Amino acid sequence: MSTPVALKPAAEAATGDGGPRLGRRLTGFMPLIALLALVVALAIADPGFLTQRSLTAVARTAAPLIVLAAAATLIVLCGGIDLSIAAVASLSTVLLALWLPHLGGLATPAVILAAASIGAVQGVAHVLLRIPSFIVTLGGMSILSAVALVVSGAGTVRVVDDSTVKWLELYVGGYVPMSFVMALVVVALIALALRLTPLRSWISATGYSESAARLAGTPVDLVKIGAFVVSGAGAGFAAIMLVSRQFSGGPTMADNLLLPAVAAIVVGGTAITGGHGSVWRSLAGALVVTLLRVGLPIVGVPSAYEQILYGVIIVIAVTLTLDWSKVSIIK
Amino acid sequence: MSVPASTPALEVRGLVKHYPGVTALDGVDLVVRQHEVLGLVGENGAGKSTLLKALVGLVVPDAGEIRVRGEAVKLRSVVDAADHGIGMVFQEQSLVPNLTAAENILLGGEGPGVRRGVYRWDAMRRLAQEQLDKIGSNIDPLVRTDALSFADRQMVEIAKVLRIEQRSQHPPVIVLDEPTSVLEAKEIETLFAQIRRLREFASVVFVSHRLDEVLEVCDRVAVLRNGQSVGELAAAGAVPRELHRMMIGSTGSDDHYHENAAAVVESERPRLTVRGLSGTSFQDVDLDVAAGEIVAIVGVHGSGREDVCRALFGAEPVTAGEIRMDGKKINISGTRAACAAGIGYVPAERKTEGMVGPMSVAENMTLAKQRSRCAGPFVAPGKQAAVVDRWIDRLCIRTPGRDTPIQRLSGGNQQKVVLARWLVDGDIRLLLLDHPTRGLDIGARSEVYRLMRELAASGVATVLLADSLEEAIGMADRILVMNDGRVVSEVACPAGGKPSPLDLVKEMV
Ligand SMILES: Nc1ncnc2c1ncn2[C@@H]1O[C@H](COP(=O)(O)OP(=O)(O)OP(=O)(O)O)[C@@H](O)[C@H]1O
Ligand SMILES: [Mg+2]
Fold it and tell me: Which of A257, B106, B357, B380 gives 20 to 30 Å between its CA and that of A214?
């Protein structure tokens, strides 16, 4: 006895149902298409845009955002969200500025470790106390911002000797900012770890259906805590990029990166409901967001309108990428 | 505007629905007469649910025609369908649990039940009671739905659906998709009484994989195969065998439970020994399963048998008791520990707990045993392909390929993938099967039974929460009866000396 499935032969299916498939494939490339369209549009609006100088500036600006977004993507893939990344990054800039004089070269790993530990604490709170990640990181954001204010004395902390973080301001091949290269390395490392190990399955399963993942013996709790650790470490690394550029740390230095980072993730097409997406998408998303940011003044829009833009693109991007079949209740 | 009695209540002509790579409906014809209960049967993936969804506007067909009382209609939404007097009782139960039955029944159509934005409870009660009276139910409209039994909630669903009568002056058509798959024998009787009552003033379309019950409650049965209508027959005098032959297009085997393949129980090798296990909804449970033995646990809703299973898999807390595997005491702190101890679990809710729908067959199959597809810490694509293809072959899983998302497979094939998950690395020692055949057609069920026999023969111990008493008796070597969280009796169930369902029912209540 058998259980036939009403399946057409593959070849027939490919020709017979070309339409929706092409559509779906296009949605997959949406962030890349948007990126290209933006570059073309900006090049037309400002012929000076496609010069090496301004492209280098874009790459430098994009680097911290790429790292923040790529690292936080793991949490979104698990079905959660990390609202504390910008606050962690701000605090990390302060810590780095304070520690550099004492620890020298060790300050960089120490800051990344500290940021990762903050992520771990939030992850553990989320998993063990069963508080939604949204709430944990909202609380975390508020607490960490306050901590940053306290330890910095509510002011900018100048870096006198930045010799150990200056390497990020070098240029590879003379043109490509080192920070951008490092951001790409971070993205590639995370992507490779997902691609080559069972992590991808574990994270997707957790994001798509946590109960199914748990009942298949997936280490759901560890995976989630791990995602928070990576997200924290990413925020720490982004902080180092910021300090190397600005020669100082400040308690609100990275705060304006939260919305762009979330926008980068959703513009990239990673589903906010979890499961579907990738860090490459967030890379593309971060570039799109950066170009928009850089491009607004070029086309003559005052930068005060920037926040409106983030709001609009987040809502539009989520609308386009949301898997409605999975969402029964809109919270 | 009267419609002659001979005009069908509903008529479907040449309905076609394509999904990417799948033709769910391939020119279906169907006639639902006035005041009849029409059964709709077919194998998993035959297109029954898609057809019903098209009738209530949840699926928009690519081609074909739907006529309501002779008039061609376009149904684009559930509201459209309701306007034409067609309503669906959702299997996944669409009630809001913390609202009263009255609120649920009237949800979105409170009418005089609300004045100036405030509930008028007396009016609410009266309006809801009107709906409940239609089905002769004595449920109190003001009781919260989460306090109702499963079967009562289904009655509330039916009362709610019957509200569509207010939207059209014609007798309604009510469609039910596998309403019995989650009900107990007694609850099914109540539902059937209800369906017979509905026939007085409505038409009913009823889908089920249990052919005997289809023949019991329906007037006429239509058969779907691969998205096409392949025939129909009058229920009176028909036998399940005949229906099954029409479903699969050939004659099936008679030895449904593969009893001649039953394993020799190695009773001297106790695999699982549970003593005094207690949890939130069960107390003091003792359970022994030997290698190669299939032990079924039967009991009504609330007997705690599901919870015992989940507790053994570490998915539910245990407050006291001892669990031994092969004589060694083990501590099951969570699902991971259970997996590591060689325990596998197949949950009853396949779609939400058993599988991860958007993920591929390969990923779903290797989810629990990553080592089976890895070399060191890395996934080895070649190894994965080999192991997955081997199990696709061995279990005859019908899938376009190992990379197809599992949600595109039919129910039976999904279930085989979920089962294979525990077999891929060959160190499974105990299988906990919670309704492993729920929602599966006869053919798929029989294959799952065969697989269970094979596993038992290879020494795997099995705990089975069967879908029906017949299944428990057919498959098990021993049956435990649970009631109110306790094991109340044990019935030997050897091949050739099977107890009758009646004997078991006596123990259960
Ligand atoms: N949303 C969808 N996307 C893609 N394929 C689908 C979708 N819904 C159904 N199908 C496919 O259409 C076919 C018919 O599915 P349908 O659910 O109607 O079958 P069924 O007869 O109800 O089966 P079962 O007895 O398992 O409930 C199946 O092959 C199924 O995989
Ligand atoms: Mg169905």
Answer: B380
